[in-house]
Specification:
The structure is a single chain. The chain is an alpha/beta fold. Helix content is 61%, strand content 7%. The chain has 19 helices and five strands. A five-stranded mixed sheet has the order 2-1-3-5-4. Helix 1 packs across helix 5 and helix 10 crosses helix 15.
Length: 456
């Protein structure tokens, strides 16, 4: 065998990584700036722009669980202060996660099935939806994939270096989102079922990660009410909602479900993907019956496991055709792509985010006058809407209870309206000002209040 032969043999393997990565980059970048930033992304922008000392003090009071992502965002927001720069870390995380899905798949099934799983992950609407969101969820999925890869490498050879790498991946997962640590339920179950020989090393890795994460966990525990107060006890409809979100359309959901069930059978001796897809969601949902913590986006790191199951299922079905396997596998992927395509169009519509802060900012910029004030209800809500800055820099930021004397017009931004109409903060506005108009931009509302005249 010549020295050129190993290099020639490596090319197909490299192509099986590069192909899904390029596909993910294309799908993730497709219309990435079209949907407007929404209020959660605005909070990320707020922390990324704020002086580091001020941000550090604010993290001590709220949003500490997102501090790692907000710090990372500081590295990209200079490229573009709004959509592209804000969403770039998520896009990169999506591409890396796609490559990671292929690498994990190679350790659990054949290379063809692994590549198929990477392609599936790259074309799911839900993955590109969060590849186009300036929050941590795409990066959480990326680190979840890398932690699975690190775990499987420990199973192959539990060297000290691989134990440290796995521990570091768990710590990184918790830094990006503490509730993503529910993934360890799947890791633990996999070790007990298929790799008991590394159980002690896994426990040691978890202990090391816990030491790193303890300060964040203590701070976050004190912020829990403000961070999770909006979450309600989930029912079965929330589980159905997660399934629908992964599929994007009813047809795609059925196709993916059938392939995933087939994949679970194909991988019955390699149970990690099935455990990964099911256990974190089940644990989060059950815990939430007592202490609500379940939200669809908090468990999106199970989607790579779904892609692995679908990839294994597609390859398994194609294998039944023997010599026609490549054509059959290609046909299956085309069916999946066609089934999910309407979901991609839907998530890229300009109005498909919970808020349209771009339109709010445009309208406000066109109508504000010198001396106008802006009031947020509650006061902390301002950082949820000022991602595009512009007009907010030209307004006097005021508290509803203490609008400066002489102010003739006040713009009020709220989360929903008239949910805050009777809020105590608006008592003075209701007394001294007249509400002239209210406009909704998704969940966020903007209203104009003018000073009452003696005859009003």
């Amino acid at each position: 065998m010549t020295s050129a032969e190993p290099r020639r043999r490596s090319w197909p393997g490299l192509a099986q990584l590069v192909g899904p990565a390029l596909l993910a980059a294309f799908v993730g970048a497709w219309s990435i700036t079209r949907p407007a930033l929404w209020r959660d992304e605005s909070v990320s922008v707020h922390f990324a722009r704020e002086p580091l000392g001020d941000a550090w003090r604010e993290w001590g009071e709220v949003d500490a669980v997102h501090a790692a992502y907000d710090l990372l965002l500081r590295l990209t927001i200079w490229i573009d202060p709004v959509e592209l720069g804000v969403r770039l870390p998520s896009l990169v995380g999506f591409v890396v996660a796609t490559v990671g899905v292929v690498l994990v798949g190679r350790r659990l099934m054949g290379r063809t099935a692994a590549t198929c799983a990477g392609v599936v992950y790259a074309i799911l609407p839900v993955t590109s939806r969060f590849a186009q969101e300036g929050r941590s969820y795409a990066l959480v999925s990326m680190v979840a994939v890398l932690s699975a890869l690190a775990l499987l490498r420990m199973v192959e050879r539990p060297s000290p270096g691989r134990v440290v790498a796995y521990s570091a991946s768990v710590a990184a997962l918790g830094c990006l989102h503490l509730y993503a640590l529910l993934l360890l339920a799947a890791h633990g179950a996999y070790v007990l079922l298929a790799a008991r020989q590394i159980a002690r090393r896994v426990a040691l890795a978890w202990a090391g990660a816990a030491v790193v994460l303890l300060p964040l966990a203590v701070v976050a525990a004190g912020q829990r009410a403000g961070q999770l107060g909006w979450i309600r006890r989930p029912g079965l409809s929330e589980l159905r909602g997660l399934v629908d979100q992964i599929g994007g359309t009813d047809v795609a959901t059925v196709v993916l479900a059938l392939l995933a069930v087939s994949g679970a059978w194909v991988l019955r001796r390699s149970p990690l993907p099935l455990l990964w897809a099911v256990l974190p969601v089940a644990v989060s949902w059950l815990v939430s019956q007592v202490q609500p913590v379940y939200a669809d986006r908090y468990v999106l790191y199970v989607v790579p496991a779904v892609a692995l199951l679908v990839g294994a299922g597609a390859d398994g079905v194609a294998r039944l055709l023997g010599r026609g396997r490549p054509v059959a596998l290609g046909a299956i992927l085309v069916v999946v792509a066609l089934a999910v395509l309407p979901g991609h169009r839907d998530i890229r519509a300009p109005d498909r985010r919970p808020d349209d802060l771009r339109s709010l900012t445009r309208d406000l910029a066109a109508e504000i006058a010198p001396g106008d004030a802006v009031v947020a209800v509650p006061a902390s809500f301002l950082k949820f809407v000022d991602a595009y800055e512009g007009p907010f820099e030209r307004l006097v930021v005021a508290q509803a209870e203490s609008v400066p004397v002489g102010t003739g017009r006040v713009w009020v931004v709220t989360r929903g309206y008239p949910s805050h109409r009777g809020a105590p903060e608006l008592a003075r506005l209701n007394r001294d000002f007249h509400r002239e108009q209210v406009r909704s931009y998704g969940v966020t509302s903007l209203s104009l209040w003018t000073l009452r005249t003696p005859s009003a």
